[in-house]
Amino acid sequence: MDATILSKSGDTAQLHVVDNRGNDHTVTVDTDCRVEYHETDAYPRDPTERTPATNELLRQVQQFARYIFAEQTTNQELLLGRHPDLVDTVVGILDTYSAEEFEELFDPVRLQLSRHAEADDEPSTSTDDGEDGSFVYYCGLLDVDVSASAGATELQQFFDALGGAFVENQFASMFGGKSSTGADFFSDVGQVANSRGYDLSELVELTLTGTYPCRFDPETGEEVFVSDATIDDPLIAAVELPPFDPGTPEEFKHAIQHHLLCQIRDCYIGMGLEPPEYVKLQGPGFAELTQRYRLLDVYEPYHDPDATVSVWDPSELLAD
After folding, report:
1. Interatomic CA distance for residues 231 and 81, integer angstroms
2. 82 Cβ contact partners less than 8 Å away, ≥ 6 residues apart
3. Which of 100, 142, 285, 315 fits a disulfide with 263 by CB distance 3.0 to 4.6 angstroms?
4. How much is the pLDDT for 269?
5. Which neighbouring-strand residues pair with 137?
6. Beta strand 222-225 pairing with 35-39
């Protein structure tokens, strides 16, 4: 995938995108990063005349165009929780949280999930069981508040530590060692930060703006909030998990971190890019992508922690 912004006019921007098959697209997005128009001569206009793989490729082109627009306009929050660097930041912040801080932040989500696991308890807000074949889950919306003591220097320190951990893992792989993945990678980030005298715990504070039952309709591809919640406002990330037994607080923290890392994986796959090594993980990420992996033969079962995955590059999966 490759993209460049061709022009900006009023409330829209036009981008030229080259997809993973080498074909050209023109994508127009508005200032809120919504796709207004998508033109290409490479594929049929009618979705029913396209293969499932081609339909997915066109989705990836649009998402990649949105990502490039958000990057070049330095407004990553326009992607509403779908920017890999922002989700990266959330995982890094969580790694610095004590057990008490994590419990204070996520206790509403844990209580909601645990009530499904306990036979004698009813969840405070029911997801209705999805008898119509839809996939039901809880969405906890996350935002960040910059700490009073944090500023541009602290943000730069976080990304410096992130880059340092990448380099260390690359050297480990080159010389026959084992590179870290998942939550272990962010432990490496913390160690690099400590070695450089950075205090990431003072960077930002996460806030949970609400926990809502949601439903994903596999027929329409729409995500529907059962309550009156909305995600039209900017957010940094969202926990999107179906009801499950959260286990102990330590197990639940690991599950949340793993889930967010799987979302980073989905950010890349969803825009046609191979994910970095540290997020080549299996498990549920974004609810929408989980259902696409489940229902479409064009993807590997990335959502299933027990399945065998052999291909991580979307360009191989969606080749001609």
Report:
1. 9
2. 63, 267, 270, 286
3. 285
4. 96
5. 214
6. unpaired
